[in-house]
Amino acid sequence: MRVLWAFLVTVLWTILFGLSGIFLTIFESNKGRVLGHCARLWGKFILFSCAIRYKVKGLENLDPNVNYIFAGNHTSVLDIPLAFSGLPYWLVPIAKMELKKVIVLGWVMSTAGHIFIDRKKSETALRVLEKAKNSLIDKPRSILLFPEGTRTRDGSLGPFKRGGLLLSLDTEMPIVPIAFIGTYDMLGKGSWSMKGHRVELRVGRPIDPGDYSYDNRRELAEFVREKVKELI
User: Fold this and answer.
1) 192-222 exposure pattern, b = at least 16 Cβ within 10 A, e = fewer
2) For 97, which of 14, 118, 120, 174 could close a Cys bridge (C-beta 3.0–4.6 Å)?
3) pLDDT digits (tens, 9 = 90+) for 55-66
């Protein structure tokens, strides 16, 4: 029953905050920022409605005036509302292309400037990342990235892909390792039961992209993964 309730309130708040944000976007000059604020409220209302208690640790590591690429483990659908709730930034995720086709959600995400990647077509994905790079330079905002590419099936941390992390090299945005704690135990992939306990978002220290290049991009992915693993 709790999973069904979580699904229903997610749909409700997505429609309410999504359509409200799209309407308010008509009147703003910096398109997408209002939807960024709506996304934070969306995450907070989902967690509140589902009675999910959460804690954020490590925000003191960040500069509120700097944009970051937040890269973390992906253990549950709860990771996304937790990230929006806990990170006080204009945040846009790199999401799978399938979400763009979801009624209302896809429209809202597109309007908010979210980045969609077709994981089955590497050449298309590279073109999207190039377009995203130009967009981030033109309109700075922070990125939410799950370098594993998909949610874990057993709670373990998978290998990190390099693709999205390369945005850091092109935009000079620092990468911040983050870790979602307890979300897998509460609602893992394929689970139909939702346990009640506190979840946590841990934020690490920013990683300077100036220490890396395209030649050692594999080392960058491995280093970010190690930092996420340390947080876990």
Assistant:
1) eebeeeebbbbbbebbebeebeeeebeebbe
2) 118
3) 999 999 999 999
